[in-house]
Write a structure and sequence with these properties.
It is a single chain. By secondary structure, this protein is an alpha/beta fold. Helix content is 34%, strand content 21%. Strands 7, 8, 9, 10, 11, 14, 15, 16 and 18 form a 9-stranded mixed beta sheet that branches. The chain has a 3-stranded parallel beta sheet with strand order 1-6-5. Helix 7 runs antiparallel to helix 10 and helix 10 runs parallel beside helix 13. The protein starts with 7 loop residues before the first strand and ends with a helix. The structure holds ligand BES and zinc ion (2 copies). The site of one zinc ion has 4 residues, from loops.
């Protein structure tokens, strides 16, 4: 089935464009026709050169990259509702704001706001376009050379977000660890990434007892998906950054079963893995300098006679043993083995994991920011700043060793969760930290909140947001 494709960002000479024009304008006075709120729109069909859609950017002094993304998203919604497949955007109007990154931000909102996951519908619901937005023409008067280069970078980035959203959206009767590996191999092939997958037998031979345990209650068992991008130019031969993404294709909670309300939506428990796919695809497409490795531990957390259970003691790939307290704290188990694999197979310059790890982080930070935990202040600061720039925002939580008390083992090295309802996101982070060798900069992003939207947002419809793709690519572009 064809996944949704991001509209193309094309570079087109201003005087050759005949179609609808988007005109983003700062709000100026009370008789400003489009309106005061960023994203308010007004169609002006009376122009001699063709129709224009005026898009309010809000009051000039209140414009930020985030308000620009939101205005772009609102404009995309208008275009979808009115079934415009093509639109022109005069770049000079955004350049005139003199805000660095304004054009990129507005285009980000436009492209991401046009996302729809509708290929399972026999017919679109009312008010929804039959026809997707196909192209955004960046209208320019000069030679457009630099613009084309920038636009191709943005395109790669935003196509990565589309991919991450779509993979996360796919239902669990379509995406399981085996079919996820199959999709990953197709993406790798199309993007020129190297690919391999470790199946249950390979993981057994290796001794990845934690990842295997989580997968053992489901039909196909677990997988570890490995994607490699070699870097380009000066980055070739440098140590890689490793991105690790939790991909639980469905999380029932296992024998620590979730109730019927909390189980719905657990197809999104693969959002971290989906983001890693998006990041790797984008890196290859934009020929990023830094070498990357993507690791996706994939399993389905199910119940059966073979499923793992509370009180099982697992031997992880690291050799450390873990007593299962909750079969619903499965994400940290699959990540543990992937983190060990990352350090055994490679000499990473940094490791970043993305995971919908805890409901607790949603209680703490809501859906606005993801939790950031790290053993390295410089890495944490760089990621935090990438979050502020990209709008995929983070907030750091502590990882004091004192929290380890909560998961000290009785009969094993440690437990996978605490019996107490204390500091769940931090306990998840402390658990993962046990698998990081001294001196390896590592950051854990608990994306359980912002990985999904529970209602339409200005540039992300309800469902998977693709959170983490733009954030990590922004961080990587600073290296
Ligand atoms: N996948 C869930 C976390 C989650 C919850 C993601 C809500 C998105 C929305 C995770 O595997 C889980 O169940 N975590 C437990 C951990 C606990 C048992 C320590 C949780 O958050 O309750
Ligand atoms: Zn769980
Ligand atoms: Zn989970």
């Amino acid at each position: 089935m064809a996944l949704p494709q991001a509209p193309k960002l094309l570079v087109t000479p201003e005087d050759s464009w005949q179609g609808l024009r988007l005109l983003p304008l700062p709000y100026s006075s009370s008789d400003f026709a489009p309106g005061k709120k960023p994203g308010d729109t007004m169609l002006d069909s009376a122009q001699p050169g063709g129709a224009s859609l005026l898009v309010s950017l809000g009051p000039a002094e209140e414009i930020t990259l985030e308000t620009l993304r939101r205005s772009g998203g609102q404009a995309a919604r208008w275009l979808l509702e009115h079934e415009h497949a093509q639109v022109g955007l005069p770049v000079a109007m955004l350049d005139a704001l003199e805000i660095p990154g304004a054009l990129e931000a507005f285009c980000t909102g436009l492209v991401l706001g046009a996302y729809r996951f509708d290929h399972y519908r026999a017919k679109p619901p009312e008010n929804q376009a039959l026809q997707p937005l196909q192209a955004i023409h960046l209208l320019h008067s000069g030679d457009g050379g630099d613009l084309a280069l920038q636009a191709s970078r943005w395109q790669a980035d935003l196509s990565g977000v589309y991919l991450a959203r779509s993979i996360a959206h796919e239902p669990p009767n379509v995406i399981n660890p085996a079919s996820l590996a199959q999709r990953a191999s197709e993406i790798a092939q199309a993007s020129g990434l190297s690919f391999r997958v470790l199946d249950a037998a390979d993981l057994q031979a290796l001794g990845a007892g934690a990842l295997l345990a989580v997968g053992q209650g489901s039909q196909g068992g677990a997988r570890l998906i490995v994607l490699e991008y070699p870097g380009s130019g000066a980055g070739l031969g440098q140590p890689p950054v490793i991105v690790v993404g939790k991909a639980i294709t469905f999380d029932t909670g296992g024998y620590s079963i979730k109730d019927r309300v909390n189980m719905v939506g657990m197809k999104y428990d693969k959002a971290g893995g989906a983001a890693v796919l998006g990041i790797l695809q984008a890196a290859a497409e934009m020929r990023l300098s830094t070498p990357l490795v993507g690791l996706i531990p994939a399993a389905e957390n199910m119940i059966s006679a073979d499923a793992y259970r509370p009180n099982d003691i697992l031997t992880t790939l690291s050799g450390k043993t873990v007593e299962v307290i909750s079969a619903d704290a499965e994400g940290r188990l699959v990540l543990a083995d992937a983190l060990t694999y990352a350090q055994r197979q490679y000499q990473p310059q940094a490791i970043i994991d993305l995971a919908t790890l805890t409901g607790g982080v949603v209680i703490a930070l809501g859906k606005v920011r993801a939790g950031l935990m790290s053993n390295d202040d410089a890495l944490a600061q760089s990621l935090f700043e990438a979050g502020e720039r990209s709008g995929e925002r983070l907030w750091r939580l502590p990882l004091d060793d004192d929290y380890f008390e909560l998961i000290k083992g009785d009969d094993s090295d440690f437990k996978n969760s605490s019996e107490l309802r204390q500091a769940h996101p931090i306990v998840g982070g402390i658990f993962l930290k046990q698998f990081i060798e001294p001196g390896i900069p590592w950051a854990h992003l608990d994306i359980a909140g912002p990985a999904t939207a529970d209602k339409d947002l200005p540039y992300s419809p309800k469902g998977a947001t693709g959170f983490g793709v733009r954030l990590v690519l922004d961080y990587l572009s600073t290296l």
